[in-house]
Amino acid sequence: MQPEITTSSASASTLATNKVLRNTYLLLSMTLLFSAMTAGIAMMINMPPMGMIITMVGYFALLFLTTKFSNSGLGIVFVFALTGFMGLTLGPIINGYLNAFSNGHQLVMTALGGTGVIFVALSAYALTTKKDFSFLGGFLMVGILVAFLAGIGAMVFSMPALSLAVSAMFILLMSAMILYQTSEIIHGGETNYILATISLYISIYNLFLSLLQLLGVFGGND
């Protein structure tokens, strides 16, 4: 009887993992579309940038609420509130690049395409190889904190070189986060698809912004 019980348990675990993975990618797709819509609205009405303080307060408040209610239906509401808000913050940034560079559209599309390619490639790698990237957890926590503080320092003290270095760091860190989060879902470390969705969304958002900033510096035409 023992082999049958073990097989049944493994099968149930696989089904649960597949369900989390399916729900995560479904919700991620919906939030990305919603975020793109709110970004488009912000661009159409030519909404001014919100500013660092409003952006940070709004982001962390909605992230807290999303995490707090991640096991209830309200979690879905706050997921869309958070991603919609982030879309609104993205609209003015994209408009800034479109107005500042003659090849602004090309820069935005290249950053968008690069983000998509990186996400799909890394996700496919984690899914097909099924490697365990849980060892990245501690490194990511420290790395993101350092990059975040460095980014604030670069903005406050107007240090372009540090800002570029932070963008490069975020590209590496967000790429690693995609591998880590996908691995966590596959190996049962993450069973809440709302939290998994938020983690992947934030990785994609920061990856896009970082690529856009680097492209603007090295490939932008005034």
| Largest sheet geometry | none
Please indicate the percent range of residues in DSSP E strands (runs of 2 or more): under 5%
Rounded radius of gyration (Å): 19 Å
Number of helical segments with 4 or more residues: 7
Query: Which runs of at least 5 residues are low in confidence (pLDDT < 50)?
Result: none
Number of domains: 1
Mean pLDDT: 91
Total number of strands: 0
Structural classification:
mainly alpha
Envelope shape: globular
Percent in helix: over 70%
Distance between the termini: 73 Å
Order of helices and strands: HHHHHHH
Folded structure, characterized:
- The chain is mainly alpha-helical and about 220 residues long.
- The chain has helices at about 1-45, 50-70, 75-100, 105-130, 135-155, 160-185, 195-220.
- The chain has one domain (about 1-220).
- Helix 1 packs across helix 3 and helix 3 (about 75-100) runs parallel beside helix 7 (about 195-220).
- It is globular, with a radius of gyration of 19 Å.
- It starts with a helix and ends with a helix.
- About 30% of the residues are buried.
